[in-house]
Write a structure and sequence with these properties.
Order of helices and strands: HHHHHHHHEHEEHHHHEH
Structural class: mainly alpha
Number of helices: 14
Length: about 300
């Protein structure tokens, strides 16, 4: 009997260890108990009783899109200062009304009457006339290759291209057009944009680019249009704007539709375009296709 009593502690330890092992095998407290009980039976689980699928472990080799977006955001340049935002917004609304009520209707009528090929020829002519601006700013930026190409373009397009209506230099000889102005020249030498301006009629610009436009106007002394009467010059300028708008109908509308705040969208788009043209020194303008863009064709239907 004494031997049996001596085995009681051993039996007690075995009993306690068995309970502990069963407790360790039971589900964690985070899992509802009714789910565990139902899983041992043949009864189907309701949607509320089904356990939540644990989150998948992401491999380190997989792409982290959100982290890439954060890194891309951190590397973006500082936003363009806009201390005159209330005034700029007022003129933005004025220009918006002028576009939809005046410029766009005229451009649509012009598009319905004038073939696209003629529109492109007119645009080529004005591009050829503005060669002194691009040529002089290529020189100022020490881009002598671009200056030589611009000089070659104006000689070829003025002679063979019927005073610039055609673009044999670009289409046939593969000579690209360099988009340069004095605002970009100042940016090339480290002059900041200053602050944003939305001027009446002319639209978005900056303090630096508006001063650059004034400086570029002196290059027009080398163009034949400068020696015409002011009234004729204004008429030519209006016609140029209508023709240029006819080739880009729908672009502004798309920007408005896709943005929550069209004013900020236009400001950011302008700033990004200017910064890209400044940093990419040899950025060129691709030759325009004679077929109208999709948005342009949509308006013609």
């Amino acid at each position: 009997m004494k031997s049996w009593f001596s085995l009681l502690p051993v039996v007690f330890l075995i009993f306690v260890s068995g309970c502990a092992s069963r407790q360790a095998q039971s589900p964690p407290p985070s899992v509802p108990q009714q789910i565990v009980l139902a899983s041992t039976t043949a009864l189907p689980l309701t949607e509320a009783e089904k356990p939540v699928k644990p989150a998948e472990v992401v491999s380190p080799d997989e792409d982290f899109d959100e982290f890439d977006e954060i890194a891309e955001w951190e590397t973006m340049e500082k936003p363009l200062p806009d201390p005159l935002e209330p005034i700029n917004r007022f003129f933005f609304n004025v220009n918006d009304k002028l576009y939809f009520w005046l410029l766009k209707p005229f451009a649509k009528i012009y598009t319905a009457v004038v073939p696209v090929g003629v529109q492109v020829a007119v645009e080529n002519f004005f591009i050829n006339v503005a060669t002194p601006i691009r040529f002089s700013n290529c020189i100022l930026q020490l881009n002598f290759q671009g200056a030589a190409i611009e000089l070659s373009r104006v000689m070829v397009n003025t002679s063979i291209g019927l005073f610039g209506l055609l673009d044999p230099a670009g289409k046939g000889l593969g000579l690209p057009r360099f988009q340069e102005d004095f605002g970009q020249t100042m940016g090339f030498y480290g002059v900041g944009p200053g602050f944003y301006l939305n001027l009446p009629i002319t639209g978005p610009t900056t303090l630096r680019d508006s001063l650059g436009t004034v400086a570029d106007s002196y290059s027009y002394y080398f163009t034949p249009t400068q020696y015409l009467s002011p009234l004729i010059v204004v008429g030519i300028r209006v016609y140029q704007v209508v023709n240029k708008t006819s080739l880009s109908l729908g672009d502004y509308e798309d920007l408005i539709e896709m943005s929550l705040d069209p004013y900020i969208a236009l400001r950011n788009a302008y700033h990004q375009l200017r910064q890209k043209r400044i940093h990419e020194r040899f950025l060129i303008d691709q030759d325009r296709d004679l077929s109208p863009p999709p948005s342009h064709r949509r308006l013609l239907e």
